[in-house]
Design brief:
Its EC number is 6.3.3.2. The protein has a single domain, classed as 3-Layer(aba) Sandwich (Rossmann fold). The chain contains 4 helices and 11 strands; from the N terminus they run ααβαβββββββαβββ. The chain has helices at 3-24, 29-37, 58-63, 132-143, and strands spanning 45-46, 68-72, 81-84, 91-93, 99-101, 111-114, 118-119, 125-126, 147-151, 172-175, 178-181. Strands 3-2-1-6-9-10-11 form a 7-stranded mixed sheet, sandwiched between helices. Strands 4-5 form a two-stranded antiparallel sheet. Strand 7 (118-119) and strand 8 (125-126) form a beta hairpin. The protein is globular.
Length: 183
């Protein structure tokens, strides 16, 4: 079985676990995320617009004391760019159906809230398969310290995410069950 096939099977299981957790509710996850972000006030933060059964970081993004942006997919095989977001700003549908601000400054984040399909206790995440966050984190981390916090349901934990040399580790994961720091 190839790594691509292993990851595809892991994604399928991850989506099922996330849907079941989503249907049960998220508990205090957004407040835990806001607490984790508080020491990073003033730093540029990237969040995301939740889609389907993703856990929603909007409340934590709105509470952040500093610039906030969301990812914009520029094209296949390219790193993400980030457009400034504020509560209530005009949004348009971007690539893959994710909403992005209709206008606004381009911001380079120092802290990223990262969506995912699955995660493990080593700090690895299973994404959607496009490599956008891995490529982006590698680029940002080559310039300066950049933090990546996964935001997910505890039920999305897997024993071991199948990894490749290009996969970037998370610095922490926040779930409704608590916060785990890696490395």
């Amino acid at each position: 079985m190839t790594i691509a096939q292993i990851k595809a099977e892991a994604r399928s299981a991850g989506f099922a676990a996330r849907k079941a957790a989503f249907d049960k509710g998220k508990g205090q996850a957004a407040e835990l995320l806001a607490d984790w972000l508080a020491p990073h006030a003033g730093r540029a933060l990237s969040g995301y617009m939740a889609m389907r059964t993703e856990i929603d970081p909007l409340a934590a993004m709105a509470a952040h004391q500093g610039p906030v942006c969301v990812p914009v997919i520029m094209g296949k095989g390219q790193p993400l760019k980030f457009r400034e977001w504020t509560p209530g700003c005009a949004m348009v549908e971007g690539a893959f159906g994710a909403f992005i601000p209709a206008e606004g400054a381009w911001i380079e984040p120092e802290v990223l809230i990262v969506p995912l399909v699955g995660w493990d206790r080593r700090g690895y995440r299973l994404g959607y398969g496009g490599g956008f966050y891995d490529r982006t984190l590698e680029l940002l981390r080559s310039k300066r310290p950049t933090l990546a916090v996964g935001f997910a349901f505890a039920a999305q934990e897997v024993p071991d995410v199948p990894i490749e040399p290009t996969d970037q580790r998370l610095d922490a994961i926040v779930t409704e069950a608590g916060v785990i720091h890696f490395g």
